[in-house]
Every structure is written in C-alpha cells, then in structure tokens.
Amino acid sequence: MTRLAATAMVAATMMIGSASAQTVLRSSDTHPDGYPTVEAVKYFGQLVEERTQGRYKIEVYHSAQLGQEADTVEQVRTGVIDLNRVSLGPWNGLIPETTVPSLPYIFRSVDHARKVMNGPIGDEILAAFEPYGVIGLAFYDGGARSFYNSKKPINSMADLQGMKFRVMQSDIFVDMVSALGAAATPMPYGEVYSGIETGVIDGAENNFPSYDTAKHAEVAKYYSLDEHLIVPEVFVMSKVVWDTLSPEDQEIFRVAAKESVLKQYELWDAQVEKSRALVEASGSTITTPDKQPFIDAMKPVYDKHVTDPKLRDLVARIQATE
Fold first, then answer.
1. What is the rounded (10 degree) CA torsion for 146, 149, 155, 159?
2. Which residues, 6+ apart, have CB-to-CB distance to 132 below 8 Å?
3. Calpha distance 314→128 (Å, rounded)
4. pLDDT for 281-302, tens place per residue?
5. Within 13 A of 289's CA, how many CA atoms are on the CB side?
6. Cα–Cα nearest to 271, from 209, 201, 180
7. In this structure, are strands 233-238 and 134-140 parallel, antiparallel, or unpaired?
8. Is-contact 182 164, C-beta < 8 A?
9. How would you class 62 by CB atoms within 10 Å of its CB: exposed for 0-12, middle for 13-18, buried for 19 or more?
10. Cα gap 218→212, rounded to integer Å
11. Considering only CA atoms, which of 130, 322, 129, 308 is closest in space to residue 232?
12. Are 229 and 120 contacting, i.e. CB atoms less than 8 angstroms apart?
C-alpha cells in the first residue's frame, strides 16, 4: 500500500508539473464566435499549441467579453490582455503609420489591400507598433466598408447631407464623414444597433459580414456600396508578454500569425458572399453610387492627416503598388 501511495503521489506531482508548464494566453475580439477573425485567431492558437508541444495555449474571448476595442487597446499595451484582434481606427491617434491604411480610398480594391498589407509595406507598419507596447503580428482583411442607414437609399453624395452616421473613434473617420456632408458620431460597436433603432443615429458604415452578423440589417435596410474604406484589422500581442518568450517561440508565434492570415482570407471571402446573400434575402436594398465624387471629396482629409513626409512617402508607395 505504501509503495502504491508513493507511486500515485509521484504521478500526481508529474501531472501538476505538466499542467503548470502550459501557459494560457487570452486573446480578445469584439466580433461574435464563428466570425472570420475569431476563427483565424483560433487557428493561430492551434498552430502555436502544436508547435510548442502544448507549452502555450490560446483562449479566444469573442463578442467583446474582455471589453470594447478602445478598452482592449489599453489592456493589451499593459499586459492585462495577452493578444488582441482590433481595428486600426483606435490606433490612429497613437501610431502615425496606422493612419495611412485607414485613409479613405487609399486602396483600389480588396486584392490591392491584401497585397500591400501582407507584404513589405505591411511589415513596416507592423514594426511601428513595438514602441507603443505591442508587437504587431499580422494584418487581417477588414473588408470594404460602406454606408448603411434606416432612412433612404444612398445613390450620391447629396443623399448623405445632414445624416448622422456612427464611426469608430478615429479623427480620420470623423473627417471623412464630414467631408461627405454628413455628421459623424463616434460610438462603441456594441451600441450601434440600439443607436439606429432609437434614432440617435441614422446609420453606420461597415462591411457585409458586420452588417449581417451584428444584425444591423434588421434596423438599417439601405446599404450603399461606396466602399470608402478598406481598412485592415491588426492582430497584436502585448510586448510585456512577448518579452517573456524565447527567440524560438517568438518565431513560432510570428509564423503562425502569418499563416493564420491566409485562413482568414479564405473564411472572409466565404462570409462576404454568405452575408450579402442573407441581407439581400431579408429585404435590404443595395445601391452602387458613382465613387468618383466621393474620392474627389477626400482631398481635405489627406491634406489634414498626411503632413509628415514619411507618411506621404508611405501613401505614394501604397498607391504605386500594382
């Protein structure tokens, strides 16, 4: 009995030691479970767990369980949250380089945006995060954002005059909406549905998957394909946590993040197609206005937000990318 008890104690100690050797990292996302960015981070977590032989495990907290984006930005910088998938807008006031891919009509198409952000220019912008307490791991596709509202179809800039639209907390987004003759109302993503429903705002701007999965199509039936923004979303890690990793593990995390991008693209394309079909079937009216007047109206936005020669060069290089 004594020998059996001793053996059991050793086995229990080994199990505790094995369990304690696994580090669990928390990753935040405001989107619902099943959303392409959420699933891409889960895929990243699978790769990390496999390649570190289970030493690291990633738990993804979707649906803003750890807070809205503005809150999680500060939490990941201080190490309260380990990893974070977040829009670029909340970073604009902190990291100058993030303003460039956030500019309206900086990208000609989704394919152009992917080529830029998944290449050397994207890596250059990711590197700009480190001085601000986070490590930029990868850019995901945030889709083409367009206006939608509860009042009327938007066929031209004239239709936007005087309307109130929710935007992310970003000076660029506010100035963009103002340049089009509408009023911008910064508001947390989670408050958009009730804001439209109660008339606090007339509408918002986002991509088809968000318009669908957040149920905004229930209260805002008019969607205009002006595609004013194709803003990437960034996947970052707290530098506080990053610095605890060995160089070998840091490489595993970086490579896994890059591989998760291709998974996100695949899931995103399927979700866009599915979401558009769903909102059309539910009765949403989709219009396609002439984009050129919208593009022409953006000159004051560029003049205001791209004053630094370094940022001007970044704009020029993005526009020159074929």
1. -120
2. 77, 94, 95
3. 13
4. 999 999 999 999 999 999 999 9
5. 23
6. 209
7. antiparallel
8. yes
9. buried
10. 9
11. 129
12. no
Any idea what the Cα angle at residue 68 is, between residues 265 and 118, rounded to 5°? 25
Three-state DSSP at 7 gives helix
For 6-25, how does the pLDDT look when each residue is reduced to its tens digit (9 = 90+)?
444 434 433 444 445 899 99
Whether the CB-CB separation of 130 and 136 falls below 8 Å is answered with yes
- DSSP track, 266-285: HHHHHHHHHHHHHHHHTT-E
145 closest CA partner among 187, 196, 87? 87
Residue 253 CA to residue 200 CA, distance in Å, equals 43
Task: Please give the backbone phi and psi of residue 134, each rounded to the nearest 5 degrees, phi first.
Answer: -135, 155
Q: Enter the pTM of the model.
A: 0.83
Per the listing, tokens 């707290």 go with 238
